[in-house]
């Protein structure tokens, strides 16, 4: 059986292609998407060639869907179940997963399979490995479009909070308030941040950042962000920095603004360039106890269920991220191009199928 999918044809080129419907292994599921969202990562993949050349690879890694076929060894899911599909779908039996780093199962970043090592979710059907470990039931009452944010934006933003290890009363700076940064703001607030600085400038992102718990907005267009943070903290800097935007040089600013003993959590995908620089003096000449932690989110059913429960209980509202809604698979390209061109009113588009 054949299906259609929206694919990367090669670096810088996209289009619709036809492929065989994927086959279901005994532990796996075949899912048809109900709602999907394009991501800045898709843009890095296609237009920056961030993961190298790929030919006729179906794009997309953020989806909520319905199971249409299930492997005979899967215990907890059945055909017809509506599921949250995490962007990262590790091999849970791997040594890396046993070591606590599921996202690197099979090699660095290799838990990221969709639109990397296999076809992604912008297709009529897609394959999910290890359904019992990787899928989560979409709770009744949650909007599928809002819930697509559980695939990547919520777990990635929250992982930034985990990497920075935000504690009660910490002062936190979130650099970048696109959808991931906004979830890092929301996650920091849930974790008990006191002063919560959000670095950004676009009006709708600023408004959302305040709604998610930012106490101060740092507009980089109004001067150096390190100087602004230092002024607001009376020269002390912040306890934690979460990097969810900017570029390779943003690490310099993060190290400059974090206190000795502070932690920097990076969840920004550095799509190009060769090096990240660490400023020697501000890093305490190598002895400042300023920790830099960068990580891909872990994925996994348990985490997905817990994050979904935050939405069910009303502690997290992802709907503020969704600025552009499309109805129909045929709008996939339009939605992806929005992510590429980033009009000022965009936070995140979603395509409902
Ligand atoms: Zn994504």
List keywords for this structure.
353 residues; alpha/beta; Quinone Oxidoreductase, Chain A, domain 1; Rossmann fold; 2 domains; seven-stranded mixed β-sheet; six-stranded parallel β-sheet; 11 helices; 26% helix; globular; binds zinc ion
Question: Could you describe the 3D structure shown?
Answer:
The protein is of the alpha/beta class and 353 residues long. It folds into 2 domains: 2-152 and 297-352, Quinone Oxidoreductase, Chain A, domain 1; 156-294, Rossmann fold. The protein is built from 11 helices and 16 strands. Strands 3, 5, 6, 7, 8, 15 and 16 form a 7-stranded mixed β-sheet that branches. The chain has a 6-stranded parallel β-sheet with strand order 11-10-9-12-13-14, sandwiched between helices. The radius of gyration is 20 Å and the shape is globular. The model has no long low-confidence stretch (mean pLDDT 96). Bound molecules: zinc ion. Zinc ion (ZN) binds next to loops.
Determine the mean pLDDT: 96
Q: How would you spell out the order of helices and strands?
A: EEEHEEEHEHEHHEHEHEHEHEEHEHE
Structural class: alpha/beta
Bound molecules: zinc ion
CATH class of the largest domain: Alpha Beta
Binned, the helix content reads 25-40%
How large, in whole angstroms, is the Cα Rg?
A: 20 Å
The number of E-state strands comes to: 16
What name does the CATH topology of the largest domain carry? Quinone Oxidoreductase, Chain A, domain 1
**Largest sheet: number of strands, sense, barrel closure:** 7 strands, mixed
Strand content: 15-25%
**Number of helical segments?**
11
Uncertain regions spanning at least 5 consecutive residues: none
When the domains are counted, the total is 2
Q: Please identify which CATH superfamily of the largest domain we are dealing with.
A: Medium-chain alcohol dehydrogenases, catalytic domain
Cα shape = globular
Terminal Cα span: 20 Å
